[in-house]
Amino acid sequence: MVIKEQIGKWFEHFHAYPEVSWKEVETTAKLAEILTEMNVKHHTFDDVTGVVAEIGEGNRIIAVRADIDALWQEVGGVYKANHSCGHDANISMVLGALSYLQQEELGSRIRFIFQPAEEKGNGANSMIERGAVDDVSYLFGVHLRPQEEIPYGKVTPAIHHGAAVFLEGKIIGDDAHGARPQQGNNALDPLFAIAQFVKTIHFSPYEAYSAKLTKVQAGGDSLNIIPGTATFAIDARAQSNVVLGELKERISRGIQAIGQMHGVEIELAWSDYTPAAEVSEEATTVAREAILATVGEEGYASDIITSGSDDFHFYTIHNPNLKAAMIGIGADLSPGLHHPDMTFNKEALDIGARVLAETLKKASYLNN
């Protein structure tokens, strides 16, 4: 079977059997099975999902990462695991690159990191803790891009993701009868104040940032009870790690002030921080040369700046000397990433695999 056809079959399998973060058990087993069939040395872990494989020889190590988890979302009225972020495509492209590289002479070892739990924002840390990027000099990632960023046939050497963090809050007041509001502390009043407050946070117009409520829960089935308790969540994003830090601080201070004003306690818990991209010019240059060599000038697209986030960038936060870049593959992807009905042009899978293979091969021969 030719590699392009095999990539398509791999995609069909992983698309049909999605697994959510930290539960990618069958995905890990399938990857191990594929790597065994390919005679590629690899190892799994006793305490976490994911696989790390290697080909080539030498002291230098070039690496590539594929995220393997799916989202949990409503699809056609049913909640289930769903690969609407394209991680099934990322797995398939990286396996395809490995297949192409098995036919090539390499200048160093190349490590393939199949990482769990990107959607939780901390799967990269699990691989870092287990030595997946130890002694790695260059690290590459790959991801499909929505059609509003680049169309099918175009490839970008670097995706400049923004930083993101989530806030979960609980407002603790007192229930009251609908006829006697003075006897309680209505949790909806501070909740509405919070919704308005996050819209009043401003930075320089030259900075990209956002904060918005993404979840609100309050009250029960009885319509004559004023709810004293409510929970909410906020999604906060910025193009730089510095701005996100300040945004986070302003949100915390403002919400606590709202709690004091309304006489309620508000518990806050920040989670799932993912840093903004620290893109290496050296890694970007290697990817750019590989794109030009594979699909030519007509297939080359400039770097992409996106408000989306990816835990891939924890690898460079952990090791600032690591030269890293994530390659973006145009695929006419629509309606968008994370949409339950997301689709894309499957011909992009082989393009991504070939570009990635050429990138890794070129990096394997670098002297630095």
TrEMBL record:
Pfam families: M20_dimer, Peptidase_M20. It comes from the Bacteria. Keywords: Hydrolase. One of its GO terms (molecular function) is hydrolase activity. Its EC number is 3.5.1.-. Signal peptide: none annotated. The keyword DNA-binding does not apply. Residues 170-252 form the Peptidase M20 dimerisation domain. This is Amidohydrolase.
